[in-house]
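Lecture notes, unit on protein representations.

Consider one protein chain, 453 amino acids long.
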Amino acid sequence: MPIRSLFLVLIALTMPSVQAMAQEAKRLTRVFFQDEDTKTVRWADLMSGQPLKLSTPQVVKGFPSLDPMKQTLVQMEMAQGYILIGVRDEQDGKFQSGWVLIDCGVETESHGDHLDWVYARDPQVRAVQLDDQQGNPAHLYVYDDVFYVANDRKNGFTRLAPSELKTTDGESAIRAKASFHSGGGGHITLAVAERVAYSSWIDRDGPNKGRVDLTPVSASGAQQPAASIFLSSGGIHGATACAGKVFFAPTAGINWVVADGMIPVDPKSISIQHIDLGQLGDRPRRTGAFTTMGNRVAFLSGIGKDSELGIIQADKTPPALTRLTVPVNEGAKASGLELIKPRRGNPVAILFEEIESDGPSKCQLKLIELDPNGNAEWEDMRVGPSISVGKAKIEGHGGHHGFAVDSDRFRGVLTNPGDGTIQVFSLDSRRIENTFEVGGAPSKIIARGGPVH
């Protein structure tokens, strides 16, 4: 055989075939989910293929060992490649509560006109703050890529900015950069806008009914609020910031104020506005949580057949409210609202219709078409298809389905706490692509990263 022909044969034998290369699994996103059975956070990589694959879920390296009978994981959020998880205890903060900070291990690499996702390392815990001095947090927020943890029993909140962390920072250095601010009380919800935090009091009656404290935020913290305002009703159980305004969810409707960043300020100069949501029987209709996208604020209200999705266009003054009845079966509750702009197509909202059952799951993922005609006004939003999903496992505030979208917005990943599965939902075909058995009770979930190119 001629030498040149022999050389070509050797190359063909030693190099993988085009078909084999095409079938090589590539990372699509990395998911992090809370397991409510073991009180841990586990992670896995979603991989390409026919069918899709999920790497074996494992506990994040360095995650603390919690007491499942005395402690629980509460909210978790992501900012700049870090995840922060709140930890609450059953002894009013006197056992061990606080937070855990995780480095996702997924970075971006700039290529001029676009960014590539780099799965640089396995995730690991960077810092843990658990003791009897953290005020038993329940709520956790991200505003402008900064974490805020509500320290309920300390009547304040903790600020932690990922941008201020160095790769060389050890655990003690990171904990030292978590600054405490006074403001709010009881069961605190908060919003931050124009470098001012608006933190609420949960009281329904008494001198703190409807109270919201205004505190300037900084790396050094603040010992006292700068001012307080009082909403038209108490029982505040939600807050968010959007388009230069701050929105609150008290027992009656929604209140909002303009955020101008002026501190100190005369509380009497702040105009508190109200959005009436009508009545449910003999009580005012209310909500308990908000989610935002762009210049819009979304919320759910009501239960069963009285369930509604509300969308507030926050950049208008006064804000414009659009409401949509979302049919939910009797005895079921709508939860887990998310707003999504898929990679292709118009924006959608997803929520779960949750109901516990002894037999097969009766839970559904409901899709809401927010802008069917694509004119960016959302005045024509409508209820879309419903997709059967796995079971919930509701215990108090926990055991609900979770939903996250990969960073490039191709797919959603959802959890089913009642049957220990994770499902992949295509935002293109609007179908469940895969179901993966992961065990335990997966609930809250976050995705970081997009497809590797």
